[in-house]
Amino acid sequence: MIEKVSVGLLGLGTVGSGVVRMIEANQEELQHKVGCPVHVEKILVKSLDKARQVEVDESLLTTNAEEIVDNPNIDVVIEVIGGIDLAKSYILKALSNKKHVVTANKDLMALHGHELLAAANENGCDIYYEASVAGGIPILRGLVDGLASDRITKMMGIVNGTTNFILTKMSKGEGAYDDVLKEAQELGFAEADPTSDVEGLDAARKMVILGTLGFSMPLTLEDVSVKGISQVDLEDIEYSKQLGYTIKLIGIAQRDNGRVELSVQPTLLPNSHPLAAVNDEYNAVYVYGEAVGETMFYGPGAGQLPTATSVVSDLVAVVRNMRLGVNGKTIVSPQFERELKADEEIQAKYFLRFYVKDEAGAFTKISSLFAEHNISLEQLIQQPVKDKDMAEVVMVTHNASKKDYNQVYNRLRDLDVVFEVKSHYRVEGE
Amino acid sequence: MIEKVSVGLLGLGTVGSGVVRMIEANQEELQHKVGCPVHVEKILVKSLDKARQVEVDESLLTTNAEEIVDNPNIDVVIEVIGGIDLAKSYILKALSNKKHVVTANKDLMALHGHELLAAANENGCDIYYEASVAGGIPILRGLVDGLASDRITKMMGIVNGTTNFILTKMSKGEGAYDDVLKEAQELGFAEADPTSDVEGLDAARKMVILGTLGFSMPLTLEDVSVKGISQVDLEDIEYSKQLGYTIKLIGIAQRDNGRVELSVQPTLLPNSHPLAAVNDEYNAVYVYGEAVGETMFYGPGAGQLPTATSVVSDLVAVVRNMRLGVNGKTIVSPQFERELKADEEIQAKYFLRFYVKDEAGAFTKISSLFAEHNISLEQLIQQPVKDKDMAEVVMVTHNASKKDYNQVYNRLRDLDVVFEVKSHYRVEGE
């Protein structure tokens, strides 16, 4: 039986510092849970003489990754440097040296997860990555263990804290997109270059990881249809409120008859839906299972200690496996072939806002267009635009296939009585 | 390596039928997840010729429990008969015969969990009981694995669907307590004798299980201070709304400096609190961890298939352990001694509603009483009662110790200017 466990840490930034802090502060509880001491043996840093967020013995620091990934004394490598290429090569090296791996790297897992899992499997090693999706929320465990017996049919996630912060502020009337984004940047909830967050790419990566696990299918980033929040304006939010909805950036992973849709887009949810009440920088994943029905996992999506909680809980799992001698035996490879839905198979309701000429027959042209594609309307607001010869129309459709909807949307934009289609969003959760 | 797993089922009621259905319907996925077939070998029923909720081969049925707990072909016993004494003796017998156990029995786990866990440990067997708390929500796994690295300081749970259904209906103005309870009984959300649910006992049992796991401390049912919802009236709900609160039956498990409080009572939560939006028969457990901050697990608290999901997910865990040869090695005995908070250490805010004489100086007497015990007031509504010489007072205090509060409450009832203290509740979540 293993008597102590040595950890090598790649990275001592925000999350890495949190990991060091938690391993120290909770050492007694950790030992009780895993049955032996766990200590940090070596830490990879960029520079030896930088100010640190946590006090560490200088002798632990190194700028040479080989001192960790090739170090025979190290049992588990925790990767929190982020990025793709270096992180990947370190992890592959560590696995080939029979070290178990814990990573918080969503970009890496979304892009190269299948390869890394295969490498872990070949080497009889564990690789855990709970922190890669929704920070402190133990959602991957929820899917893999908690709902192990169920067939998951749909997941809807608020999996990006930055965009949820921005949309929450906009909803509360605290400013338009640009102002609120600036505030988020000042508070550290958004990066200097916010593209990856606000354009939905970050959320897309998390949905790939969730979909792959939840549906047991090797999905890729190219499978996700992505639309960000930078076009959402206050009028959209106001009209949504009037109609009883809240706009959120929602990642959707849906499976019907073995075929899957993955998407990320601003989405209207009924105010009574539990996801509609997930505010500020919080994350949540709503899971529909055939048997369990609807469950939700809610919590902090980022932050030093929440993310470190997931990383160290993964470490606990790895050490328990070491003590039991069962590492590498819990990886289950995807069961199903990758099968994606065609646009005809993707059903949803849509919200549209557009300007039309204020003339006789204009609305007939529009309603005929929708009728022609068998899309019926559930809610409608039409009102004149002050001092202009036009009206603003807001509508919510009944369910339509994405194929039909896209045709209507394109034809609507070309109609002579339509000035501009200002915005259109998916509607979910009803 | 084990090539197939045989299950003995104790009980074929609602949950038992769901378990049979799920094992059959999801057999292919189950096999993929555990690596071998899993089948039901024998089922204990009360009577052989009763109508069933699920089709089963008659040869599987028996009225003799020994054919399951003493059956050498059976590897795992699933107990879903409920009740205490028989269930306990069957489980102990199964464990002594080296059979692993999955149970959905909250009453049994709350009363005899420590003894059953010890027996499992002695026999090198697993005992899993996810379904005993909050039906389909994988909350026990969330505590034990997902937040394994964190120090949990507080849990607040809506862990009884019946009372949440009743309070939700009352909140929506759909009737007073008695009417709504009757409706719940007709819909099957409440038992013919609803005492255990409405008086908080059911919730108390679940809080014992949550507290024991979350705080790693052997807590007992006697440690829970319990108050039910049968005294909640529509006026309380109306005033709570005016003040920005929602009334829920909340189980609280709180730890400070190694000392614990367990309680269940109607509690006012700010409308913005995620638990306030948990409606109808849904359950949710809000968990505060030192590192992770606030997380919430939401889902169905009961029902055939949600509960069966938890039971069969437990079965998956047991079978994985069997395949890996690590059964009985994952039970961690409580780390800390049982230490309960004294009333002086329990801090909370309180809501009070009472009638006072409409005379000069009445309010001064009342406010001096609170001041004397250092309890200050946060919100106050006083209004005359029509056609009577009295006023109705509603107040929310700032934080006070339970000891101080109880003294004030008792003295308030005896004040000559007070006619009646109509209701008083704890206020949490701020």
Overview of the structural elements:
Two copies of one chain form a homodimer. Chain A is an alpha/beta fold and 430 residues long. Chain A has three domains: 5-134 and 304-324, 3-Layer(aba) Sandwich (Rossmann fold), CATH 3.40.50; 139-300, 2-Layer Sandwich (Dihydrodipicolinate Reductase, domain 2); 344-427, ACT domain (Alpha-Beta Plaits), CATH 3.30.70. The first copy, chain A, has 14 helices and 17 strands. In chain A, strands 7, 8, 9, 10, 11, 12, 13, 14, 15, 16 and 17 form an eleven-stranded mixed β-sheet that branches. In chain A, helix 5 links the parallel strand 5 and strand 6 (127-128). In chain A, helix 1 (14-25) crosses helix 12 (304-324) and helix 4 packs parallel to helix 5 (106-122). The model of chain A has no long low-confidence stretch (mean pLDDT 95). Chains A and B meet through helix 2, helix 6, strand 12 and helix 12 of A and helix 2, helix 6, strand 12 and helix 12 of B. Strand 12 of chain A pairs antiparallel with strand 12 of chain B.
